[in-house]
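Q: Given only this backbone (146 positions), what sequence would you predict?
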């Protein structure tokens, strides 16, 4: 009789563990977004349409334009080594546009690629250029206290 109760607990524990694993897997699949460069997205071709991606590239100089309504912007981004791919046109409507958005600033756009090859973004981030990127690191000699 004791062995029967132990078996019931083991089976119940296994069922609960499988249910938790299933819920975690389903939750991660719904929130996973692939991070790609412009050339990687374009290499996927039509298979990339209507899927959510994050695409990174530098803003093509002179391509930033505001819509007539004032509620949206459109621009082009390209890989840092622009030889690899043609620029990707990004359309963003509504929401906050980063203040530092400008020529050659690295942009991360999250959204979907449509059938015409235009990336419709639901979120746009601009990477802040660092003043410290070119600074030389300083060496410090920290003494351990006894």
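A: Predicted residues:
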């Amino acid at each position: 009789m004791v062995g029967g109760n132990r078996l019931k607990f083991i089976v119940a524990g296994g069922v609960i563990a499988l249910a938790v694993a299933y819920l975690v897997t389903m939750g991660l699949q719904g929130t996973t977004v692939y991070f790609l460069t412009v050339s990687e997205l374009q290499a996927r071709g039509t298979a990339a349409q209507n899927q959510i991606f994050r695409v990174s590239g530098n803003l093509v100089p002179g391509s930033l334009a505001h819509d007539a309504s004032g509620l949206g912007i459109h621009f082009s981004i390209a890989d840092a080594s622009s030889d690899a791919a043609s620029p990707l046109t990004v359309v963003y409507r509504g929401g906050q546009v980063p203040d530092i958005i400008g020529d050659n600033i690295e942009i991360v756009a999250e959204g979907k690629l449509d059938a015409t090859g235009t990336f419709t973004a639901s979120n746009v981030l601009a990477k802040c250029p660092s003043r410290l990127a070119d600074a030389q690191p300083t060496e410090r000699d920290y003494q351990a206290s006894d």
